[in-house]
Amino acid sequence: MLSEARAVSLREFWLRGRGQANLMIGLAVTLLLIAVAVLSLVWTPYPINAIDIPAKLQPPSAAHWLGTDQFGRDVLSRIMAGARNSIAVSLVAVGIGAGLGVPLGALAAARRGWVEEVVMRFNDFTFAFPALLSAVMITSLFGPGAINAIIAIGIFNIPVFARLTRGAALSLWQRDFVLAARVAGRGRTRITLDHILPNIASLLIVQMTIQFALAILAEAGLSYLGLGTQPPDPSWGKMLNEAQTLMFLAPQLAIFPGLAIMATVLGLNLLGDGLRDLLDPRLRRLR
Asked: Rg (Cα) of the chain, in Å, rounded?
């Protein structure tokens, strides 16, 4: 019976979502990005680091669909591999932010008092160091690299999820069903796990999609500055950095990575907006 009810709810969720253009477009772009990243693990048109100097700076053609760079490397192959690296960095960074921020926010809402004060002051302190500044400090100590970029972006995401979780949880702690659970003798930890987190899960899922898009941008920015993914591993931001001196000679070297970043961020934002409209009951009532 439980599996049948779950299947019915999923079917209703899909039927409601099909009518939302934002959700469908965002989902299609996101799935395409994931498919390209997974495909790059087993196949690319050319080896991503294969140098072919005689074929350098070729425009898009049947042999090289997106052309070649200054070393004769296939641009399409490197963009495909760059998608893989961007997803890996962003996914782990957002996972760090949610994995630490959500428990901290839930703890602050459940315990209040000095616990809440400590958590929120920690958030304020962390917000004072944006991802870029954190990456500069971390790389000055440990050197540039994807791991340090993940740490910097992840640290910046912690207060985002902590504040969101705390604000949403505080509103639920005043609801009748939570008060009833407290009267029944449930502890704060059990109430948080059984009632608070399940009721704010949709809000957290939407925020994850938004933060994932921001993490993609942050990773590209850090790689552009030489603080993120390091050569020979391809990165969209690093490709933009290498293309800036060749803008008039081969503008496609900047156009295609830029389009990849733009399409990915736009798709994730549309997905987040669509999920918010679909999961928020207040917005559903307005339709």
From this structure: 22
Is the confidence at residue 287, as pLDDT, over 70? no
DSSP secondary structure, the chain, as one string: -HHHHHHHHHHHHHHHHHT-HHHHHHHHHHHHHHHHHHHHHH--SS-TT---GGGTTPPS-SSSTT-B-TT--BHHHHHHHHHHHHHHHHHHHHHHHHHHHHHHHHHHHHH-HHHHHHHHHHHHHHHTS-HHHHHHHHHHHH-SSHHHHHHHHHHHHHHHHHHHHHHHHHHHTTSHHHHHHHHTT--HHHHIIIIIHHHHHHHHHHHHHHHHHHHHHHHHHHHHTTSSSPTTS--HHHHHHHHGGGTTT-THHHHHHHHHHHHHHHHHHHHHHHHHHHH-HHHHHH-
Give the whole-angstrom CA distance, residue 204 versus residue 197.
Answer: 9
Residue 275: what residue type? Answer: L
Q: Which residues contact 104 (CB under 8 A, 6 or more apart)?
A: 119, 122, 123, 158, 162, 165
Pair of tokens at residue 58: 């070729």
Length of the chain: 287
Q: Encode pLDDT of 115-158 as tens digits.
A: 889 988 888 888 777 767 777 788 777 888 888 889 888 988 99
* Superfamily the domain 2-286 falls into: MetI-like (1.10.3720.10)
